[in-house]
Amino acid sequence: MHHFQYMDNVLYAEDVPVAAIARKVGTPFYLYSHATLTRHFKAFDEAFANIRHLTCFSMKSNSNMAILRLFALMGGGVDIVSGGELYRALKAGVDPSKIVYSGVGKEAADLEYALESGILMFNAESAQEIQILNDTAERVGRRARVAIRVNPDVDPKTHPYISTGLKENKFGIDIQEAVRHYSVAAGLKGLTVVGVSCHIGSQITRVSPFVDALNKLKELIEGLRGIGLGIQYVDLGGGLGITYDKEAPPHPRDYARAIGRELKGLDVTLILEPGRVIVGNAGILVTKVLYTKIKQEKIFFVVDSAMNDLMRPSLYNSYHAIQPVTIRGRETVRADVVGPVCESGDFLARGREMEMQEPGDLVAVMSAGAYGFSMSSTYNSRPRVCEVMVKGERFYTIREREGFEDLIRGEKLPDFLAVDRAVQGQGEGQ
Ligand code: LLP
User: Fold this and answer.
1) pLDDT band, very low/low/confident/very high, at 422 (cuts 50, 70, 90)
2) Which stretches of 236-303 are assigned E, i.e. beta strand?
3) Which among 132, 145, 269, 288 is most buried, taking Cβ atoms within 10 Å?
4) pLDDT digits 0-9 by tens, 37-82
């Protein structure tokens, strides 16, 4: 259940007709429901009420400051993967003591920024990173709280591009090797070993891979405690899936129950890094039909948003439901919904049965709140779209639509290519 529903064949976001927002802000735009965001965060966080835990929203899924602020006010922390994400999180008022930092390629300058900011924990992913983190900590005179991100080698049974906990993936340190790296880390003056972490993948639709991973982590923790290391945190990463089409992922309650059973007696604080499950179904992408092309049996709806706005269908062939903003009761056709970008891979849906559309009609690409705007680009020099949050009867632009001038911000012409000169040069040649 979310807050994008039809009333008399008109799609509403909470109490506002989506078409009314489009009239005000233009198309395309991302639209998030405040009520859905709030409900999802609460449902997740409260599922773990009986377990000592911290919910660190994985902000790569959606890094808009208004959304970060909302979760921060609800007591959430964040999971970051870059200095840029840390900057956004701090600007949005996220408590640094609720920030965890993962990623295979952390740069020394970003490590320093995170150390100076006093974040909760670094999830280190390699021997070299452990050394650099230590050196940085010693240089700035702080101690870094560290967990090692281990690769537990469990198969999350999801799309290969978003599986991260298998031996062949680039992430983490192999669990068999972990004790050795922990021993090194424990001997370094700039580090305090505090936890164990993993993240096995994304869009996971069953509980068992998480339980398998946790069991492997438990064994490791016993081993580490055996050699005198104080493990206070277990970070299980994110990964709980959502319904895009017909998937039936477990409810956060089922997930929490299974995890809670395994954690009994372990005396740790659980850290969770959910992204998609919180924001995925709290957002849609609203786009306008520009043209309808009927080519030998095949129908294309050319819309004003494209792979640069929502990359998931092109990149993963992933399914997003597409719904008319006004149901008009026209005939059902099978169509490809495509964007204006000059690539055949630029589609939002293929072979989709839906009501016939006409130029000017609006359609909503559903389940677009996670890895939608945050993965968007300006490919084909298409300015990035605006983001809007609806709350009850009101709506708020939470990111302005970019203009052409934004496209060239920061670009520079070297002297020998200066526009004046080029014009002169042209003159001279004639
Ligand atoms: N923690 C870590 C360390 C991660 O790498 C990720 C996602 C998460 C948490 C959050 O996972 P979630 O709860 O959202 O599944 N662009 C892809 C998804 C990539 C996920 C990368 N890591 C997509 O659009 O499906």
Assistant:
1) low
2) 269-272, 283-295, 298-303
3) 145
4) 999 999 999 999 999 999 999 999 999 999 999 999 999 999 999 9
CB 326 within 8 A of CB 10: yes
Report cis status (omega within 30 of 0) of the bond before 28: yes
Report the CATH number of the 4-29+280-395 domain.
2.40.37.10
Q: Residue 209 and residue 163: Cα distance in Å, rounded?
A: 11
Each residue's pLDDT tens digit, 358-384: 999 999 999 999 999 999 999 999 999
Ligand 1 contact via 61 beta carbon (within 6 Å): yes
Instruction: Please indicate whether residue 62, judged by its CB atom, sits closer than 6 Å to ligand 1.
Output: no
8-state DSSP, 402: P
CATH topology for 32-279 is TIM Barrel (3.20.20)
H or E stretch at 5 = strand 4-7
Q: Find the 228 Cα to ligand 1 centroid distance in Å.
A: 33
235 lines ligand 1 (CB under 6 A): no
CA atoms within 13 A of residue 50's CA, in its CB half-sphere? 11
In the three-class reduction of DSSP (H, G, I as helix; E, B as strand; rest coil), residue 219 is classed as helix
The residues with which 204 forms a beta bridge, in sequence order, are: 240
Domain positions in the chain:
4-29+280-395, 32-279
401's tokens: 């639509």
